[in-house]
Amino acid sequence: MEEFFFYLFASVTVGLVLLMIVQDSPVASAMCLVGAFFGLSGLYVLLSAPFVAVMQILVYAGAIMVLFVFVIMLLNLKEHELVYDRMNLKRVVVLFIGLGLFAFLTKLFLRIPKVEFAAVEASFGTVKEVGRTMFVNYLIPFELIGILLLVGLVGAVLLGRREE
Amino acid sequence: MITIHHYLILSALLFCLGLVGLVVRKNLLIMFMCLEVLLNAVNLTLIALARYFRVMDGQVVAFFVMAVAAVEAAIGLGILINVFRTRQSVKTTDLTALQG
Questions:
Q1: Using one digit for the tens of pLDDT, what is the confidence trace for B12-48?
Q2: Which residues pair with A116 in a beta bridge?
Q3: Distance CA B16, CA A98 (A)
Q4: Angstrom distances, CA of residue A92 to CA of A16, A86, A88, A147, B45
Q5: Quick one: closest CA in A to B67, which residue?
Q6: pLDDT (tens digit, 9 = 90+) per residue, B42-94?
Q7: Cα–Cα distance between B66 and A62 in angstroms, integer?
Q8: CA-CA to A93 of 20 to 30 Å: which in A26, B22, B58, B59?
Q9: Is the pLDDT of residue A147 over 90?
């Protein structure tokens, strides 16, 4: 059962990311990416991280992708700007570099001993447990993230302002 | 049987896809989306390893990565709108002021 769901979510994620890369239109790309985020959130549930899975949908598929779609609509791109240029030698080289990196990472990861996931208690990954770790062990990083969000907010307002 | 390898190799695949997309595409919007894929691949690694070692820290760090991704998207798209205002284009081939 777990295998079925893993392969389902994994193929949805990888397939939609591939589609996103080859799409001409940014709106279609954004929609593919939203689907890929849903697949990833399914994988997080399989990894007993329900809180992060919900956050994935709320923050990524909700907030970030809505921002992307808003910007795409604001830009109002013309048809000729969207053309996806053809395959050339440089791109084939990039593709092979990517494949090489994938092979290298796979080889590296396969050195980890192959054991089954040990069972965890039912509370693993729930809001309560994640919150306890976050506010006990990671309090200062949490506060820094708050400051970062404030800086980002001010920066976005400054960048978006029209020059007088 | 699904082991840690499945998740790590999947995240390596996602990372490489995002990286190739980032280099291959010329549209700044889609390059930004590829950047999000890169961050998500790392998040998947963090959560898989959190499950493997049975500690919660990975999930907390993944949560922080999400917050950073949100800030990055907001700032990046703000810059993108400014680029479009001055250049009337979001293709990297049209951004040649630095002779790149």
A1: 999 999 999 999 888 888 999 999 999 999 999 999 9
A2: B3
A3: 5
A4: 21, 11, 7, 42, 27
A5: A145
A6: 999 999 999 999 888 999 999 999 999 999 999 999 999 888 888 888 888 77
A7: 12
A8: A26
A9: yes
How large is the C-alpha radius of gyration of chain A? 20
Helices A139-160 and B57-87 meet at what angle, rounded to 10?
10
Overall residue count recorded for chain A in this entry = 164
Tokens of A138: 């990671």
**In chain B, what residues touch A17 (CB-CB under 8 Å)?**
14, 17-18, 21, 37
3-state secondary structure B40-75: HHHHHHHHHHHHHHCCCHHHHHHHHHHHHHHHHHHH
Contact assignment for A21 to B20 by CB distance below 8 Å:
yes
Is A61 near chain B, with CB under 8 Å? no
Instruction: Say whether pLDDT at A86 is over 70.
Output: no
Among chain B residues, the shortest Cα distance to A29 is held by B30
Coil/strand/helix, residue B27: strand
pTM comes to: 0.91
Say if A154 is an interface residue toward chain B (CB within 8 Å): no
Whether A110 shows a pLDDT value over 80: the answer reads yes
